[in-house]
Amino acid sequence: MKTGRWLLLLVFNIALPAWSADPPKAPVPPSPYIGVIYRYADTMLAKGRDTVGPQKTGLFLSALDRTALAPLTSRPQAPAGVREADRAGDPLTGANAQHDENLLRLLYTLSELSSKPIYRDAADAELKLSLTGTAQPGLFVAWDTVKDEVIKKDGSSALEVFRPWMLWDRCFDLAPDPSKQLASASPGDKLDSPREAGFCVRKWAVGYARTKDGQFLRAIEGLLERFEKQRPASFASSLSMAIDFDGAALRLPEPLASRLRTFAAREDEAFCALPHDLKQKGGFASPAGLTSQWEEKEGTRTTAAVALMCLARYENTGSTAYRDLITAAAESYLDSPLPENLDLWPLTLGHAVSLQVAAWRHTARPAHLEHARRLADLAVEKFWGTSPLPRASLKSEHYESLTGAGTLALALAELHLNILHITAVRCPPNTIDR
Amino acid sequence: MKPFFLLLALSVLTVRAAPAPPANFMDVVRRYADTMIEHGRDTYGPQESGLFLTALDRMTLKPLTVRPAPPGGIRRGDRPGRAWSAMNGSNPQLDQNLLRVLNTLTEITGDARYAKAVDEELTWFLNNTMSPKTNLLPWGEHLSWDVIYDIPIGGGDETMHEFARPWALWDRCYKLAPEASARFALGLWEHQIANHQTGGFDRHAPYFEHGPVDGKDFPRHAGFYIGTWCYAWKYTSNEVYPLAIETLLARFERKRVQKDGTMAATIGPLECELAASMVPDPLSSRLKTFALKEDELILPDLQKQLRGDTAGYIPPRWQTGYSAGTLSSSAMFCLARYQQTKNPAYRDMLLAFADSYLGSRPEEDVDVWPLSFAHAISTQVAAWNLTKKQPYLDQARTFAQMAVNFFWQDNPLPRASLKTGHYETITGCDSLALALLEVHAATNGLTVPIPSNTIDR
Questions:
Q1: % of residues, chain B, pLDDT over 70
Q2: Chain A residues with beta carbon closer than 8 angstroms to that of B64
């Protein structure tokens, strides 16, 4: 056939048609998620900031009335599994940057995606206000936007660590001295917790990288020495600490960096050797037995949340043990229906979506991308409905970022970028809920 | 104690497994090559061309049935497959370093299978895929050959010819398919260059129909064309090729003079020097003079990169993206130019780049490409070759081991990036294999020359 084509060309000098058997063009795949995300972000920028009380700080409120798109005037019932003491104020008129961390990360991403600086400016403003503003609430305390005072938790305004803080570098860019001051702070007896020790080491590592102040190195060395003498941490704590220690090592000089890496590898081994049962029961080993796929319980994580920690380790180590755990966890969700009557959090679905996207990236199995879409469609329908803001849980009507609205929105953004194969903008890893 | 916790306790006590033995880099590369020869060639569709597939499913070692998630920084239209469809393209330009690796494997092992596969690819591709109207080939930045449908395809909505890299295999091509090779060179002049008086061109030219425009004439591409025409002249003595070279040279002699009278680097010196070695005077001398001036203009920028001068663009160490290389890719440029000229400024800079990578590791959560490791490794090997200082070879081995762990893992094929799982050469796993061969050769004192890992530019 090919010879015939060339013969035609040579003998008759005629124009050949396009190569035969052109296959039909595939359509651009639909992605309805980005509109939901922009609407959420735009609403938070327009209606979700502190314009009440004597000091109109502009901080993002961590809870809102979804109908009025205004601060709550009463304290709605907490979503299942949420401790009253963890919520932002009474009524819920607090601003807690840690609860909104993934919203802030999303805003930076949206500025890259849209080339509109308003999102990045809003996130920068939140960080600056938290660090230097007249309110000076600090990053690690909640601020009552009505009373303009720190919300005391259990009668104390002590530092509270909710998640690892991944925005330290941006904080140092915006306000170096206050950032250094805040990074220097130690959470005291919470350093016995492997998870929070990891958060601290990460913070101090950035502090050292940005200031070269030896106090940060000494703090890390002291803490590391203590944990080196202990047996590996247990369950997800091992993972969380390994993520932070390994991440911190990249910002530190030798030999400390290598010690942190060695320590992280020890925790990796301990975690991977646990009797996880993903294939049969869809769960990672945890102190309470196996992790649940859908239920958020006090002190535990879902299977998807733990799998995303595995993802953080996999994408920084290439360890196939983690790859196998991630793919097994993702497969376990493919035929796992949502339990009826569960007061599902946005966080839970956000993790499930991001896990499927990760499995798609690493296996190229379309079933994972398709399932991510199904879960995302469900999330948009059930959590957003007709409101621009997602509800705090399936049985709640109000918005409250504590249950992971930011995480779910980040997962939808990640899914959108993957569906349309957009790579110029890199979505932050959805792996910080640990 | 409950059985679950007993099992748990036992497993925690027995977790300390022995570390994996270090990889034999030659074995890794050979297994990759063997797998590509056995599973990675076109045996599909009506024409079983034997071309290497540029992307594969690593789980099945078969063509992908989907368009997998892209590695960070890879644009949609640059991938070897039809838009939004399964990725089944063969793009020899993206596989070029794999072809060079295969040739080298034959030289190292004496096994002719590797070079034979290369010859078969080049012969079939040149003789069967050329556009009948433009003589351009379905390769480079946007085009490939669909091995299922047996048609030339674009990764995006258009079918535009654009070089992805310089083509370093012309000598072999002229031996295997001289007529087709020359026809492509002529097509490049007639259908890529829009204005034969001014040399105006666009780096995009339609593959199917004549339609070049005087548009975005990225100087780098002028270098690729000059690097094509000099071989055409070498093998055909057709006067059109020196004319083509001179036309583009004159264009950039003019264009590098800025409005304020200052000068800026354009084509770069490498292809000009290469062409100067093949064409007659006075063009040869003019090309050499041009190349020397390019050196003068480029060196200060490279020094800024090394100093971390915040006034200019500083490439990252590890994160690569479209049109965005790493510091070690700059080192590879220095190596290429040093190999041509022995200019000590390039040697010193290469060593400084190598020093800047000692002890380095990829930043957290970056979707690192194999290419980044390839250049980092080759920089260290080059520094070792120049100085015989052991830390450079040690660092090269450390990077190579990391790269094997990160990208090959338990599979014979490397994956496309840290955040993807399929095989796709667009992110430079072919260059990484070449770098592993360099480490193997340096470690074992092989005398077989390893091709210079300097064509990713």
A1: 95
A2: 364
Of B371, B373, B375, whose CA–CA distance to B335 is shortest? B375
Give the global pTM: 0.93
- Does the distance separating the beta carbons of B59 and A274 come in below 8 Å? no
- Residue from A6, A14, A201, A423 whose CB has the most chain B CBs within 10 Å, to mutate: A423
The alpha carbon of residue B421 is apart from the nearest alpha carbon of chain A, in Å, by 4
Query: Is-contact B203 B194, C-beta < 8 A?
Result: no
Are A26 and B76 inside 8 Å of each other by CB?
Answer: no
The CA–CA distances, whole Å, from A247 to A179, A213, A312, B286, B322 equal: 19, 19, 10, 52, 26
Structural tokens at position A46: 């327009």
- pLDDT at residue number B12: 41
The per-residue DSSP string of A279-309 comes to HHH-B-EETTEEPPSS---TT---HHHHHHH
Verify whether the Cβ–Cβ distance A318 to B409 is below 8 Å: yes
Chain A residues touching residue B421 (CB < 8 angstroms) = 323, 361-364
Shortest CB distance from A361 goes to which of B11, B405, B421? B421
Q: What tens digit of pLDDT does each residue of B386-415 get? A: 999 999 999 999 999 999 999 999 999 999
Residue A146 pLDDT class (50, 70, 90 cuts) = confident
Number of CB pairs < 8 Å for A and B? 123
Question: Which one of A3, A11, A19 would you mutate to disrupt binding with B, by most B Cβ within 10 Å of its Cβ?
Answer: A19
Q: Is B321–A5 a contact, with Cβ atoms under 8 angstroms apart?
A: no
Query: What is the spatial distance between Cα B29 and Cα B413, in angstroms, rounded to a whole number?
Result: 9
Rounded to the nearest angstrom, the minimum Cα separation between A137 and chain B is 30
The pLDDT tens digits for B296-315 are: 999 999 998 888 876 778 88
Question: How many angstroms separate the CA atoms of B451 and A297, rounded?
Answer: 58
